[in-house]
Amino acid sequence: MTYVRNCWYVAAWDSDLAQLQPVPMRILDERVVLWRDADGQVHALEDRCVHRHAPLSLGRCEGINLRCMYHGLLFSPEGQVLEIPGQDKVPPQARVRAYPVVVRHSWVWVWMGDPALADASLVPPAVGFDDDRFILGHGHLDYAAEARLICDNLLDFSHLTFVHAASFQAGPSFAERLPDITPLERGVRVSRWSQNAPDIRDPNSADRFDNYMTYDFLLPGVLLMEAASFASGTAEALDFGPPDFDTAVTGRNFTSQAVTPMSGDTARYFFSWGPHCGHGDAAMRDGMMKIAAMAFGEDKVMIEAQSRVIAESPERPIMPTAHDRAVTLFNRLVASLCRAERGQRHGSSLQGAAPSSAVQFEGDKIAFR
Amino acid sequence: MTYVRNCWYVAAWDSDLAQLQPVPMRILDERVVLWRDADGQVHALEDRCVHRHAPLSLGRCEGINLRCMYHGLLFSPEGQVLEIPGQDKVPPQARVRAYPVVVRHSWVWVWMGDPALADASLVPPAVGFDDDRFILGHGHLDYAAEARLICDNLLDFSHLTFVHAASFQAGPSFAERLPDITPLERGVRVSRWSQNAPDIRDPNSADRFDNYMTYDFLLPGVLLMEAASFASGTAEALDFGPPDFDTAVTGRNFTSQAVTPMSGDTARYFFSWGPHCGHGDAAMRDGMMKIAAMAFGEDKVMIEAQSRVIAESPERPIMPTAHDRAVTLFNRLVASLCRAERGQRHGSSLQGAAPSSAVQFEGDKIAFR
Amino acid sequence: MTYVRNCWYVAAWDSDLAQLQPVPMRILDERVVLWRDADGQVHALEDRCVHRHAPLSLGRCEGINLRCMYHGLLFSPEGQVLEIPGQDKVPPQARVRAYPVVVRHSWVWVWMGDPALADASLVPPAVGFDDDRFILGHGHLDYAAEARLICDNLLDFSHLTFVHAASFQAGPSFAERLPDITPLERGVRVSRWSQNAPDIRDPNSADRFDNYMTYDFLLPGVLLMEAASFASGTAEALDFGPPDFDTAVTGRNFTSQAVTPMSGDTARYFFSWGPHCGHGDAAMRDGMMKIAAMAFGEDKVMIEAQSRVIAESPERPIMPTAHDRAVTLFNRLVASLCRAERGQRHGSSLQGAAPSSAVQFEGDKIAFR
């Protein structure tokens, strides 16, 4: 697995963490136990007792602490052992790793890198349930596939034409045009106009719209997308630049999605989606969630199958296409940051290492090297 | 896995390949997608898109071509990419491996070796449903065991006495006598007379027959067997030579069987069986298929159990018996052809390499070395 | 796996071995077939035919012998092949390993080491169903965990307070006090008094008892425990020494338990439990078996979870606590005997090798090194 460690990873939906009930999670192949203490604070520790390695997620919450229920060692939220039954003294080295935690935008975020570098301002600006502009449904899906493959999928929406022909009904032309790609400091922005599109909510209508969708795909694997339909002609009037979403005519919606690597071949995919409060209601949200369930199931079938093929011959090269520009930019960013992190851990910086991908983008052209 | 590559492997029953519905198969641990195109032709490609390795078997048939349904690359039956959505040019190296295919005797045969050597005359002379001499039922069974173990099983029918005591009712004497073994250019012939046998279809009858069965076991793992009951005394009259099956009194039947290695520990076993049209009808065929289902299930239990034992200590030597003569001849043929193929691939011939088996046959005697 | 080989391992409940029905078992990762012959004798052979490695446990008992039902080889209880169908002579090297067997105390014991060293006097003094002092129920449970982890569990009853809070109701004080630990030649004795305890069978009663429990944990993983309630004051009167169980007031009971390593990550746990005939009846035994089923299920959840954690990072050190004294003594004994056995097999003795554990006990104190 090649993932940036100094990042906030989504570990759970805030609402899925009941008070005083420890929950096991796996992030970057590390076992993590999460619990919400008696005061409502959420904590994350390495899910392995120092004594005989029983999982603390089978433990019992006591106040703000967590007790291992094999032989009774009591852990503080900082990972320090406070009590060992049958023993007067607790050796100071009796501690497990504690992970920084932030609860924000309805998600529990865990910092997997150097705790000294944990910076809450790096939490991506997802839209949570506390944002009353949008009426959101949510869920999660577990994948038997590496997170990177799901990120690749989300970075190239040309698959909508093929994988989601039945659910999202994107149509053939969607895959024929390339979106606008903008590199960001911690991700990539992908935007596209579709002109003179029919009303997908009312196929019999003669009305036509200029549809716009834009998403930021941010480290470590967070997609934040807004989309809406505008009056026909808006795209040209704006010279295909970004619109003011408040001028949207209909169909304005927002989705927050996060891909969390569990092990080298499993991942958890968190998602919310729903209409803007001025463009829909709870019934529309429920309809959208049904479409999402169908579509995300289509992704899962394809990506898990792809994962099994890759697992059999991981050495076989891929052949990127023009639609892979955002994929390549993002993966190059990840590779670059991972090299920097490795350099920091080794006490030196790696310089001049070539990107692993053999593809280079020159302007809008793709060059196979 | 040690299997001859320059061979036709049974990939499917012809009747199981619906038009325009791609089907995944695995042969010699290679992923193969099969499809019957709009013209009825069957094609076989490597089941892995050049782009991001999605399986083409999740794709969509379009005319004679196959489209990957992840990002829409279109493949010709020759494996060449014809279209990449969003991209004007298709790089010439964008292609996957295509396998020669022959549909014959109701089976779809795929050539796994050098396509330049594919020779349809090497397809074994199985009996298909288009041969109106026989009334055939058919099926297939998947094994969690290496194909070689199933071939070994089919090359030594002495197991009928033990594995199939309940189904085929071969009786103890069957295992006590050795059959006649004849080496063939691409296999082994196994024949045997059983004299003065009762009528297995009518155990109360006083009638006695001389039963004859003969099968060719051919590369890569195809068993073609004819059997029948003759008038008592026929065996001696023929000096135990082969009879003319047209003189059979009763019970004439034919079975075609093929063992296809999928992975190193899985295989698919294809089989048909049924009476000669002069010796039975559809009802008899159905009764025979019930016995076959029982018997082949007995084989599966034994061989999968054997496979699990071998997997735990593959280095332990076997101890061949007198009944293993056909097994040894066939495996020696396979080993010899595999060495020759390796030599061709390496641009040189391997000479003087000793057979891996420590058993040698001298005339009819078996020598443990 | 590090286990002493020159030991009697429990392979089955005597009552689970029906006559003439071979049963497969795995001990120390070796496949063993057990069968009770026509005379009632129990035998154990390597469960792998010399011919093509079919499991003999799929075979057929014939008198005192066992026939492989793949190609009919017949094996004597000593492992010698007696018949090979189709072959006049049987090569003398045609034999499989035979294991010494003793049936005693309702268990079938198999000697996994050098047969020449098999010594029936080393069978631990378990209590079988033929001992009419106790009214015993019994069962077994299969673990997806290494036997050693179950042994560790049984050597440290402080887990009763946590794992079995609901079932055995040991209470917090149980884990706070250390038991008396006595090294034995082939194991460890663990004993403890609990003073002024309420009657667990009648919580409303004002009666108070001094409870005593003592168990020997013996190679290779056999726990033999007796427990009872005595008149309040008995513990002090005996200066906390062992009581005469015949003076017990109530609650006298006995349990025999055995942990058999199957593979490196599976084990079978055999157990019996029940009241002394003077302190209970079949109804009490059935009630105790219900509690045992609940409690042993609690152990299984914890130990299998622990096993999965350890499997992911087996190199991580454990941190023993004061309660681990019996665990450490027993594992040190096992390590020492294993070194001696390796020395014998290598024709030399290993001297001066340090114990693998970094913990040393000095008197009653535990020292972290």
What is the topological layout?
Three copies of one chain form a homotrimer.
Chain A: E1 8-13, E2 23-27, E3 30-36, E4 42-46, E5 60-62, E6 65-67, E7 74-75, E8 81-83, E9 98-99, E10 101-104, E11 107-111, E12 137-143, H1 147-155, H2 172-176, E13 180-184, E14 187-198, E15 208-218, E16 222-231, H3 234-237, E17 250-263, E18 266-275, H4 282-312, H5 325-345, E19 359-362, E20 365-368
Antiparallel strand pairs in A: 1-11, 2-3, 3-4, 4-9, 5-6, 6-7, 7-8, 10-11, 12-18, 13-14, 14-15, 15-16, 16-17, 17-18, 19-20
Superfamily at the CATH H level of the largest domain in chain A? Naphthalene 1,2-dioxygenase Alpha Subunit, Chain A, domain 1
| Tally of helical segments of chain A | 5
Total discrete domains of chain A = 2
Overall CATH class of the largest domain in chain A: Alpha Beta
Q: Based on helices, strands and strand pairing, what is the structural class of chain A? A: alpha+beta
* Uncertain residue ranges of chain A: 348-369
Question: Averaged pLDDT of chain A, please?
Answer: 92
Multimeric state of these chains?
Answer: homotrimer
The main pleated sheet of chain A reads as:
7 strands, antiparallel
| Percent range of helical residues of chain A | 10-25%
Strand order of the largest sheet of chain A: 12-18-17-16-15-14-13
Number of strands of chain A: 20
| The CATH architecture of the largest domain in chain A | Alpha-Beta Complex
The CATH topology of the largest domain in chain A:
Naphthalene 1,2-dioxygenase Alpha Subunit, Chain A, domain 1
Distance between the termini of chain A: 25 Å
Q: Using the alpha-carbon principal axes, give the shape of chain A.
A: elongated
Query: Which percent range describes the beta-strand content of chain A?
Result: 25-35%
* Most extensive interface, chain pair and sizes: B-C, 31 and 24 residues
H/E element sequence of chain A: EEEEEEEEEEEEHHEEEEHEEHHEE
